[in-house]
Amino acid sequence: MKIAALQMVSTPDVARNLATAARLVGEAAHAGARLVALPEYFCLMGRRDEDKLAIAEADGQGPIQDALSALARRHGLWLIGGTLPIRAATPGRVRNACCVWGPDGARVARYDKIHLFSFDNGREAYDEARVLEAGDTPVAFEAEGHRVGLSVCYDLRFPELYRALMTPPCDLLVVPAAFTYTTGQAHWELLLRARAVENQCHVLAIGQGGLHENGRRTWGHSMVIDPWGEVMALQAEGEGVVAGELSAPLRDAVRTQLPALRHRTLDC
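Request: output the structure for the sequence above.
Response:
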């Protein structure tokens, strides 16, 4: 199955971002992709954290969700909608939700980001907990015989989440993200390749990649990684489609030659 990461440089304008997403999904579909994924915050890179509250939708309905459902149906593919803000039970909070639509446009999965990013090096500071409410449940789904595990951005630093997703083992781990330039330059590829190697499966990493209108710079470097940890395709910055093939024979060969998943003795 051909898979694709759709790298974006999202803006504070939801309509413009949806138009860009639609164009990139169309390009990936035209190139033969059966599963495509958008980055974290694809629909809005606001000027303030609170901007997410203004566009938050109810679970299962709203213009952003409707647009993604229509795109999946129009192109007949699996669409992982990066993340979008869905209203939380707690007033003034939203869930950073990664939703998935099947080729018929029906939603098949929703994962709420568990680990909320916080960083302060004296020059730049972030604290997602100001407006986000954390999820608490790992989520995987089946797509054309492949088990796909979901995660979001900062989750990448917590290998226990991916171990939880490996029962039963996934064929693909998906990581939509908006890594900062600072942390991405230091750790993005290192962590992604580690997740691929330790779980012996493909990884699809989808980044925001460039200088945004709100002044933030994201690392980008969307990539497809194989079960041996090799980078199959990569785009450093800017909008684009990064594609690769899921290879069951390679996955099986890696797991047979180096049966690390069978050698596990400790529960996470």
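The mean pLDDT is 97.
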